[in-house]
Amino acid sequence: MKLNVLGCYAATPRTITNPTSQVLEIKNHLFLIDCGEGTQVQLRKSKIKFSRINHIFISHLHGDHFFGLPGLVSTFRLLGREKEMHIYGPKGIKEAISLLLKLGDSWTNYPLRFHELTARDSELIFEDENVTVETIPLDHRVYTNGFLFREKMGERKLNIEAVANYKIDKCYFQNIKNGKDITLDDGTVVPNNKLTFDPPKPKSYAYCSDTGYYPEIIGQIKNVDALYHESTFLESEAHLSTKTKHATAREAASIAKKADVGTLILGHYSTRYKSIALFKEEAEAIFPNVELAEDGKIFEF
Ligand SMILES: [Zn+2]
Ligand SMILES: [Zn+2]
């Protein structure tokens, strides 16, 4: 799994920072998560192929998370896109985008499929043979979801030496990879664990932005490999944090610790801070494995 952070700051774009957007590469999918202003330019800078993006997940309808979407939708048209585009986001997102397209009489020549979300409980919104995506209901000033991306368990790995020793024909390999035992010509049953190795452990990534301190999510994100949790403020601005339903670095770390995640990635920093180093310091007092998101940074897990 590879996470490209395109932008990870709150509120307004600046010459040196961008509002929220990320691309998650998982099992051959490129999932775009949030689309703040400037996302197209950041995609270009990261050399990410626009045509490989088929699913866009929008957490909520604050500008710093979706004002880049109308522009991107329009660019896909100019690039001659024909493939379907799926957009998952709060109810109202279809109306917002459609109105802009209508006023400019610039309808897309590719199918735009909106999946509008209204549920207050987590729901499965995407699934194929390799991956699932669930919403993570969050606590913000407007209706907001995080997203939980999980790889599915892959097929078992063939033990080439063992299948050769038992002289097993190639035509049985797929069954073996699917976990089946094999009966030899003399009637001996060879159990699957003698012919295969365990597949790699499936990876998971939880994206939680924007939200106040919200322990209700802990059960759902337990043990994920990586958690991106917003930390708009430091504890010194906790009063602002509570008022605006954002989280501090300390609160993000507390969630990471209780959920026992692998790595905590902090982001959505308020642009009031000169340096983001203090976010790491504050979080590490609570939870050891903290990384700072930065525009253009890539995480692999
Ligand atoms: Zn935001
Ligand atoms: Zn917000």
Please describe the structure with a list of short key phrases separated by commas or semicolons.
301 residues, alpha/beta, 7-stranded mixed beta sheet, 10 helices, binds zinc ion
If you had to describe this structure to a student in words, what would you say it looks like?
This protein has helices at residues 39-45, 63-66, 69-78, 93-103, 160-165, 173-177, 218-221, 238-244, 249-259, 277-284, and strands at 2-7, 21-26, 29-35, 53-57, 85-90, 112-117, 124-127, 131-137, 145-151, 157-158, 182-183, 189-190, 196-197, 204-208, 226-230, 263-267, 290-292, 298-300. The protein has 301 residues and is α/β, with parallel strands linked by helices. Strands 6-5-4-3-2-1-18 form a seven-stranded mixed beta sheet. A seven-stranded mixed beta sheet has the order 7-8-9-14-15-16-17, with helices on one face. A hairpin with a 2-residue loop joins strand 2 and strand 3. The radius of gyration is 22 Å and the shape is globular. The structure holds zinc ion (2 copies). One zinc ion binds next to helix 2. One zinc ion (ZN) binds at residues 60, 62, 140, 210.
